[in-house]
What does this fold into?
Amino acid sequence: MNYTIETQPIETLKSDVLCVGIYTNQHLTASANALNDATHGLIRSLIERGDILGKLNDTLLLNVVPNSHIERILLVGLGDQQALSVKNYRKALASAITVLKKANIKSAAISLAECDVEKADLTWKIRQIVEVFSDKLYQFTQCKSKVDDTIPLNDIVITTSDNQCNDAKTGLAQGIAIAEGMTLAKHLADLPANICTPSYLAKQALTLALSYDSLEATILDTAEMEKLGMGALLAVARGSRQPPKLITLEYHGDDKNSKPIVLIGKGLTFDAGGISLKPGAGMDEMKYDMCGGAAVLGTLQAAAQLKLPINVIGLVPASENMPDGDANKPSDILTSMSGKTIEILNTDAEGRLILCDTLTYAERFQPDVVIDLATLTGACLVALGRVPSGLLGNDDVLCHDLIAASETACDSVWRLPLWEEYQEQLKSNFADLVNIGGKDAGTITAACFLANFAENFRWAHLDIAGTAWRTGSAKGATGRPVALLTQYLINRAHART
It folds into this structure.
């Protein structure tokens, strides 16, 4: 998809379709008004006839536009004439691209960045156009023998005025970087587990490093992890024929002495639960247990594309969790890289095991902050549903910054407590910790487990079990939380300038 900015008057544009907004009570946006004048009152005549009321998400596609360079007009309802909420703005964009996808067109001009949106500037509005459109146009076709060869929408022109061109270009660059980072994350997550193995994921990091001079990739194999004493991570991989990998992808955008932001993404390319085998229903979706790792790679790509003046390290522990004669068992006791011992009560609580060793490994980078993201607990889905990701952490400033970034990015989070009382559920008679705290507060106790390995730095944990993919008829990866993390990095970069 090609996105560009156009500043010429809309009545002189040439496009397969021009998308403009209208409000209820026959109010028109500036572009709709100009287009109405250029078409001798066509739009107002349709409104007066009642063909479209202007309610939020109303759409009307005009396939014939007499005496115009525009072949079609798409009217998009915006509701009452007032500033839209950020969610309603995105809903209006989604309704527009839904129609455009079905219209069998190659190019479209979009004049919706002129809409008033609460607490939003032009940069943000244009970014949302790119993000929402790219999300709706994404398709996974790699594994299909027959692909629809209908001519797709390929060119999007976003209209704005001359005096706003610089802000528009900033929004366009951010939107493209985030959208492409999300597309990478979605594609990797949607791949089946027999293709997207730990080794495959490692190769994608190496490919990214070859694509950007500012990125550098290093892959640790089993022998190297054994030397480091990563007993927790390696125990998870024992039941699989696929060798585990610890992926490090470094982005260098600032002075080498500047402390990096470390992002850790859980990379379970398939999770059968190990000896504590998962139920068969829905197990196919456990290929999505590597969405955290995919999002880290997507975020690092976005950072490199935007050339942010900060240093970022991405760490992805990649493994499978399978049942096998050599798999770890309930009652086993493991020794982690930190030296802490862990009693295994449930082998399906494996994500925290690969993350705890990676958190310890992160210390060698002397991080400013560490953020891990993982499809960690079904309890998070029960508690919060599929709207926000769960947020926990040991630093209020970091958590506040992530919440602020989530609000800008429309990639919501909800903070849960990380109180000392919950640590009582992780006590073991035989080791330093157990790997699961029982049925109560599962999301919190999982984060409490990780907190034992994050004591030496500022740390936050994102549980994306409910937000990383959609299920049912719309099954597929969402690319979250690439937008949130990229916005956090953008905010950090702006704070330095």
